[in-house]
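Help needed: design a sequence for this.
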């Protein structure tokens, strides 16, 4: 359990780069759909190279050919319906707003438990809600600068992403045999979500033209640090505890750390203002909620 928690927290640090760089690309005039598509287009060759060195690429390709429909469906849900809405949400708010609202996935992950034959771990749900209260405090200091319509659009997009990510991840864990490793599963899901991303890329090309060099470089960074390193860490963390719904909920709750890392990154790189006393209280509540969740 300690190893899975360490992996989960490390993943949240790398995942924070997603929110910071997506917001940076949006501020630089980059089209959000290119930001989303390029991440997975860059991820595919990186993951394939890692698998090729381990001689594991043929194993996963054989598994996909054996059972293609679940791979195509749940990979598109887990990666496509997760990241496209999340990237679009960066158009409607600062990095801290998207990162904080994204923590809805903590509660979504707990509520999805009955779909997989388990009971909702009530204690974990309570602590997850406690984390969300801390995130609400973090957002409270900045709500005056937002238009209600933009906030609601961002919220709807993030709700879709927050449900899709744990749903696709858990469904693929069920369909994957025990001999499939975490990196093979991530590669397989990236490959099977490729039709979705190619369609998005074609639309982006006709809508906005080619992406800028800066957007390509930043998307490559997101692909490496968030798409590959963070995803592998998080998927391995969930894979270690996949037989225990309570521990799975705890590991998924470690992603609340993204809020803290995004706030810090926003201050350092995007010149975000320091948290107010209410914001600091929110940070304390988030950290306390994560600790209580783990101890439970």
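Sure. Designed sequence:
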């Amino acid at each position: 359990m300690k190893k899975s928690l360490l992996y989960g927290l490390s993943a949240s640090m790398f995942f924070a780069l997603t929110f910071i760089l997506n917001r940076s690309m949006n501020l630089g005039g980059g089209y959000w759909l290119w930001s989303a598509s390029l991440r997975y287009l860059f991820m595919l060759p990186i993951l394939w190279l890692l698998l090729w060195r381990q001689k594991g690429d043929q194993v996963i390709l054989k598994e996909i050919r054996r059972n293609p429909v679940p791979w195509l469906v749940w990979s598109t849900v887990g990666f496509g319906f997760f990241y496209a809405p999340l990237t679009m949400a960066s158009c409607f708010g600062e990095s801290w707003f998207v990162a904080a609202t994204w923590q809805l996935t903590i509660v979504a992950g707990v509520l999805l438990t009955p779909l997989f034959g388990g009971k909702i771990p009530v204690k974990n749900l309570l602590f997850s809600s406690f984390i969300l209260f801390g995130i609400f405090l973090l957002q409270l200091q900045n709500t005056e600068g937002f238009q209600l319509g933009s906030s609601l659009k961002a919220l709807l997009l993030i709700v879709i992403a927050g449900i899709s990510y744990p749903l696709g991840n858990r469904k693929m864990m069920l369909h994957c045999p025990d001999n499939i490793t975490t990196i093979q599963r991530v590669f397989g899901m990236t490959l099977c979500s490729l039709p979705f991303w190619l369609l998005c890329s074609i639309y982006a090309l006709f809508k906005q033209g080619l992406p800028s060099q800066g957007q390509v470089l930043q998307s490559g960074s997101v692909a490496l640090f968030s798409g590959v390193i963070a995803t592998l860490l998080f998927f391995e963390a969930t894979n270690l505890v996949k037989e225990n719904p309570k521990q799975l909920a705890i590991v998924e709750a470690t992603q609340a750390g993204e809020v803290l890392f995004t706030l810090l990154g926003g201050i350092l790189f995007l010149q975000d203002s320091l948290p107010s006393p209410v914001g600091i209280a929110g940070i304390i509540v988030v950290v306390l909620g994560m600790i209580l969740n783990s101890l439970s």
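The mean pLDDT is 83.
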